[in-house]
Amino acid sequence: MDRTREYGTAFAVALVHVGLLSAGFLILADQFSFPEILRVSSEERLALFRQNQGMIVPAYYMMGLSGLTQIMLAVLFHQSFARSGSTLLIAALVAGVLGGAFQMMGFMRWPIAVPYLAEQMASAGTAEMRGVVAMLEGLLNRYAGMVLGEHLGFLGQGAWTVLISLAMFRGPLFSSVYGLVGLVLGGFILVSAMEQLGGPFEAIGFLSAPVSAAWLGWLLMCGVSLARTQSDGVGPRFHILSFIGLVALMGGLAATALM
User: Fold this and answer.
1) pLDDT band at residue 94 using 50, 70 and 90 as cut-offs
2) Which is the most buried residue in 159, 234, 236, 237, by most CB within 10 A?
3) CB atoms < 10 A from the CB of 205, how many?
């Protein structure tokens, strides 16, 4: 069966996915001190949010849409392998869909729930009222953000990456280089998801931003490889230009996340 349409669509969705997350991250880093702002007090976070709300809300909405594109990617990659009934691919599909759904729920609190809390904080007339709003925002941040978006979302994303990378070793669709790099990145994403458990895991928090950025480079190169795959389902050979593209994209995006 000719699956070149699925291959091309997967590349297009990967491009949109990378664009949504990259643009959202850059806007939030500039306007909202992201991601450091997530670890400051609720009162400080809401004050800065209200100050730059016009830019922050669209940026978070874009990042929320990346949960939808993650789900689409999980489905398209599953279809591209064309191995119906494969337990490995079905598990990858489930992990990718759940990861995208959890991340969408985490991001979407910002365009809808947080503006209300920021308004309530600004209009609170007493310290007691501000304390109540801060407690509600802190609870929302820990549950919707840390539990759903970061912990469960990263677990789903990491599991999808590891499983789909294992599938890359079992057929001709991808070069095994993409599988090897994906296994490493997926492992790091799974480890960084443990930060939300606190205690000794807090020390690994620095991994999240650069690893996620490098993952976007890997994903985009996987999309490029799919777009170059012919109807016979045999992916292109991994050559020196593939290596340069992979290193440049992963390194460049990771460096941007660290700036």
Assistant:
1) very high
2) 159
3) 15
